[in-house]
Design a protein that fits this description.
The complex is a heterodimer of chains A (207) and B (455).
Chain A (H helix, E strand, L loop, with lengths): L1 E2 L5 E2 L5 H12 L20 H11 L3 E4 L6 H8 L6 E3 L25 E5 L2 E3 L4 E5 L8 H4 L2 E6 L4 E2 L2 H7 L7 E5 L4 E2 L7 E2 L6 E6 L1
Parallel strand pairs in A: 3-13, 4-5, 5-8, 6-9, 8-13
Antiparallel strand pairs in A: 1-2, 6-7, 7-10, 11-12
Chain B lengths: L2 H8 L3 H23 L4 H17 L1 H14 L3 E5 L2 H14 L4 E4 L3 H5 L2 H7 L3 E4 L2 H8 L16 H12 L8 H18 L2 E4 L3 E3 L4 E6 L3 H6 L4 E7 L3 E2 L4 H14 L6 E5 L7 E7 L3 H6 L14 H5 L1 H6 L10 H11 L16 H5 L6 H15 L3 H16 L11 H7 L2 H4 L18 H13 L1
Parallel strand pairs in B: 1-10, 2-3, 2-4, 4-7, 5-8, 7-10
Antiparallel strand pairs in B: 5-6, 6-9
Helix pairs in contact in B: 1-19, 2-12, 3-12, 9-10, 16-18
The chains are: A alpha/beta (207), B alpha/beta (455).
The complex binds iron/sulfur cluster.
The site of iron/sulfur cluster (SF4) has 14 residues of chain B, from helix 14.
Organism (chain B): Flavivirga aquimarina
InterPro entries (chain B): 4Fe4S_Fe-S-bd, 4Fe4S_Fe_S_CS, FTHF_cligase-like_sf, Helical_ferredxn, LUD_dom, LutB/LldF, LutB_C, NagB/RpiA_transferase-like
Protein name (chain B): Lactate utilization protein B
Chain lengths: 207, 455
C-alpha cells in the first residue's frame, strides 16, 4: 500500500480510476434525491422579441429586426461596407466572398472580416443565440472572424435557458454554443472593453 | 505567514485597497441586481444546491456514466489521484504529440496542480490566454481572484508590464489600447499553438459533454485551432443531466459579475475531425473532503467568486494574502482540508457575517463551515496564531484603514462596510434574515452590542 498525497489508500496494482471510485463510494453520503425542475416557477408572460432585443443590447450586441429576409444583404452592406473577406452560411445571403468546407484549415480563417451564420434560436432572458457546428462547418469561425452576424427567425425565441435546453435536447451532439454579444473583457481595472479574443462586434438579425 | 500579516502588507497602499474594496463591492451590487431580475431566483439557488447534493451522494456512478458517454463520443478520459499525476498525464499527452507550444484558458484546477511550472520545466511553452491571467503570468504572480485574476493590479501597472513584455507604448493605462495590444499578442500565440488546455465549468454525466464558459473567447480560439484539446476538471464538476445546465448557467454569470450569461457557453461533445480531445478527472483531496459531513458542501462550489466580492475581509486584504489557489471565504473552507496547519489562520479571516453564504448561488453554508473549522483548529493546532487571530485579522484589515471608524463617519460608508447583519435585514431587501452562529469572542460581541446601542 502506498499513501498518495490526496490521502487515498491505493493498492499498488489498482489504477487511479478504480481507487478514486472506491474512495468516492466509501466516502459519499447516503443517496439524496435529484430534484425536479418545476418550470411554473420561472414562467413569465412577457413579450419575447422585445425582451430578447433588450437582452442582446445588455450583453453588448445589437439586434436588427428585418421585415423580410430579402432585406438581409442590404442591411449587412449598410452595416459593414468595408468587409471584404466574408463567409456566409446563410443561404438567403449572397454576400459571402470566401467559401469554406469541412476541409478548410481553421488557421486560414485568420483574415476573415465578417461571418454570417444561421442561428437556431434566441433566448429572451439573456440575449444568447444557439449555434451549432452544422451551421458553420469550421468551429473556429464565429470566434476568429472580426465581426459576426447571426440570423434567427423572430418565431424562434424562447423565454429562458430551461426552454433552450429542451430545444436542443434532440440535437446531434458535436460542438455547439450559446453566443451572447461580442467578446469582451474587464480584466484591466474592471473597465469593460469590447473585443477581446473573439469577434469584436455581434449583430443579431431577427427576421 | 499568517493571513493577518499578509493582509497588513496589502493594506500599506491605502488608495489601492480602497479601490479594490470599492471595485469588488460594485461587482457584488451588479450581482444583486442581476439576481433580482430573475423570476424564481431563490428557487434556482435551491435547485442548484439540491442538484449538487445529489451529485455528491451519487458521484461514483455519475463519474462512471460520464466516462462511458465521453468515450462513446471519441473523447479520451484520464483519472488523476493527485496534482502530480494530473501533471504527468497532461505532459504525456503533449509529449505524444510532440507539442512545444500550449495555450491555456482559465482553469483554477491547473493552478491548484501547478501545471505551468511542471510543463515549463519540461521545455513546453505555456501561455495563459485569459487577459487577466496573462497579466499575472507576465508579472510572475498567481491570480488573486478566481474570476478576476488581476483585480489587484492597477491599469498603470499593466501598462508598465506590457511595455516590458509586449513592447507597447506608454498609454497611462488606457484599457482599450492595452486590450487591443494583448489581442494581437495572443492571436499570434493561438495561431502557433500545438495544443490547448482548458478548464471545465460543467461536465454532463448523461451526455459525456463538457461546457466551458468565457467572455473573451480564449478557450475557443485555443481549442478550435490546435490539434489537441485537454480539458482538466475536478471530479465535483459533474452534473447529472444536460437540462441542469439551464439551472447552473442562469446562476453562474449573474452571480459572478452580474452579467446575464457569459459571452460564450461552449458545449464540447465530440472532437472535431482530425483532432483529439482528452479529459482529465482529478481528485487531489476531493474524496477526502467528501468524507467530512460538515465540509462536504464546499464541493458544491461552481467558482463564481461572489463570496469573494462580498467578503469585507477579502475586499480589504486582497486575494494574495490567503496564500492559497482559491482565496476568500470558499478558499478558507477548502484549504484547511488540504493542509490544516498551513492554512490554520484562514478560517479566522472572517467576521462570520454570513454575507458569503447569502450570495452563494449553490447555497454553501460558508460562514458556518468557517466556524466549524475554527472549532477544529482551536483543538488540533497548537500555535499562537489561534489565540491571537480572531480579532487581529478583522482588526488589521478593517480597523487599520482610516476609513473604518467603528463609530462610523457616514451612513453611506456604514452601508458599504458593515457586516451583513447590520445591512441586509433592514436596508437591503435582497439579503435574507438568517440566524448567525454565535460569535464566541467577547470583544466581537461587545463591539456588536455597542454598535447596536449607538444606532
Ligand atoms: S462558494 Fe459559492 S459564492 Fe463562493 S465561489 Fe463557490 S459558488 Fe461562488
Amino acid at each position: 500500500m502506498v499513501i498518495l498525497m490526496s490521502g487515498i489508500k491505493k493498492d499498488k496494482k489498482m489504477s487511479s480510476r478504480d481507487s478514486i471510485l472506491k474512495a468516492v463510494k466509501n466516502n459519499k453520503p447516503e443517496l439524496l434525491p435529484l430534484p425536479e425542475i418545476d418550470l411554473d416557477v420561472f414562467n413569465e408572460d412577457i413579450n419575447l422579441l422585445e425582451t430578447f432585443i433588450k437582452s442582446v443590447e445588455l450583453v453588448g450586441g445589437r439586434a436588427k429586426v428585418l421585415n423580410s429576409i430579402s432585406d438581409l444583404d442590404n442591411e449587412i452592406k449598410a452595416l459593414y461596407p468595408n468587409a471584404k473577406q466574408i463567409v456566409s452560411s446563410v443561404k438567403e445571403s449572397d454576400f459571402g466572398t470566401v467559401s469554406i468546407s469541412k476541409d478548410t484549415d481553421p488557421h486560414s480563417l485568420e483574415t476573415i472580416d465578417l461571418a454570417i451564420i444561421q442561428g437556431e434560436f434566441g433566448v429572451a432572458e439573456n440575449g444568447a443565440v444557439w449555434i451549432s457546428e452544422n451551421d458553420f462547418s469550421i468551429r473556429v469561425l464565429p470566434f476568429i472572424t472580426n465581426d459576426l452576424i447571426l440570423v434567427i427567425s423572430k418565431d424562434a425565441i424562447c423565454l429562458h435557458l430551461h426552454d433552450a435546453y429542451k430545444l436542443i435536447s434532440k440535437r446531434e451532439r458535436t460542438f455547439g454554443l450559446f453566443v451572447a454579444g461580442p467578446s469582451k473583457t474587464a480584466d484591466i481595472e474592471q473597465c469593460l472593453v469590447i473585443g477581446a479574443h473573439g469577434a469584436v462586434s455581434l449583430t443579431v438579425m431577427v427576421v | 505567514m499568517a493571513h493577518a500579516k499578509e493582509a497588513e502588507i496589502f493594506n500599506r497602499d491605502e488608495s489601492k485597497v480602497n479601490w479594490h474594496d470599492k471595485a469588488l463591492w460594485f461587482v457584488r451590487n451588479k450581482r444583486d441586481k442581476a439576481g433580482s431580475n430573475v423570476k424564481g431566483w431563490e428557487e434556482l439557488r435551491n435547485l442548484a444546491s439540491a442538484i449538487k447534493a445529489n451529485v455528491l451522494s451519487n458521484l461514483d456512478n455519475y463519474l462512471v456514466q460520464f466516462e462511458e458517454n465521453a468515450k462513446k463520443n471519441g473523447v479520451h478520459v484520464h483519472w488523476a489521484a493527485n496534482a502530480e499525476e494530473h501533471n504527468k498525464i497532461v505532459h504525456s499527452i503533449l509529449s505524444k504529440h510532440k507539442v512545444e507550444k500550449v495555450v491555456k484558458s482559465k482553469s483554477m484546477l491547473t493552478e491548484e496542480c501547478h501545471l505551468n511550472p511542471y510543463l515549463e520545466a519540461n521545455g513546453i511553452e505555456v501561455v495563459d490566454t485569459d487577459l487577466g491571467e496573462r497579466i499575472v503570468q507576465l508579472a510572475k504572480e498567481p491570480p488573486s481572484h478566481i474570476v478576476l485574476p488581476a483585480i489587484h493590479k492597477t491599469k498603470e501597472e499593466v501598462d508598465v508590464l506590457f511595455q516590458e513584455h509586449l513592447n507597447t507604448k506608454p498609454s497611462n493605462g488606457d484599457p482599450q489600447y492595452l486590450t487591443s495590444e494583448a489581442r494581437k499578442h495572443l492571436r499570434e500565440k493561438f495561431l502557433k499553438a500545438d495544443a490547448a488546455i482548458t478548464g471545465v465549468n460543467f461536465a454532463v454525466a448523461d451526455t459525456g459533454g463538457v461546457v466551458v464558459c468565457t467572455n473573451e473567447g480564449n478557450a475557443d480560439m485555443g481549442t478550435h485551432l490546435a490539434k489537441v484539446h485537454i480539458a482538466c476538471m475536478g471530479m465535483e464538476k459533474i452534473i447529472p443531466q444536460e437540462k441542469h445546465l439551464g439551472v447552473f448557467l442562469r446562476l453562474l454569470a449573474r452571480s459572478a459579475t452580474g452579467q446575464l450569461i457569459t459571452t460564450y457557453s461552449s458545449h464540447f461533445n465530440k472532437p472535431a475531425p482530425g483532432t483529439e480531445m482528452h479529459i482529465v478527472i482529478v481528485d487531489n483531496g476531493r474524496t477526502k473532503q467528501l468524507s467530512r459531513d460538515d465540509f462536504r458542501a464546499s464541493l458544491h462550489c461552481i467558482r463564481c467568486g461572489a463570496c469573494m466580492n462580498t467578503c469585507p475581509i477579502y475586499r480589504r486584504s486582497g486575494g494574495h494574502s490567503y496564500k492559497t489557489t482559491i482565496p476568500g471565504p470558499i478558499g478558507s473552507i477548502l484549504s484547511p482540508g488540504i493542509d490544516l496547519k498551513k492554512n490554520s489562520s484562514l478560517p479566522f479571516a472572517s467576521t462570520l457575517c454570513g454575507s458569503c453564504s447569502d450570495v452563494c448561488p449553490v447555497k454553501i453554508n460558508i460562514h458556518e463551515q468557517l466556524y466549524q473549522w475554527r472549532q477544529i483548529i482551536t483543538k488540533e493546532v497548537k500555535q499562537p496564531v489561534v489565540k491571537k487571530s480572531v480579532l487581529k485579522i478583522t482588526g488589521r484589515v478593517l480597523a487599520n484603514s482610516k476609513m473604518y471608524g467603528f463609530m462610523g463617519k457616514s451612513a453611506r460608508f456604514m452601508l458599504k462596510h458593515m457586516p451583513r447583519f447590520m445591512i441586509y435585514s433592514k436596508l437591503n431587501a435582497w439579503g435574507k434574515a438568517r440566524e448567525l452562529p454565535k460569535v464566541k469572542d467577547g470583544n466581537f460581541d461587545e463591539w456588536y452590542k455597542k454598535r447596536q446601542k449607538n444606532e
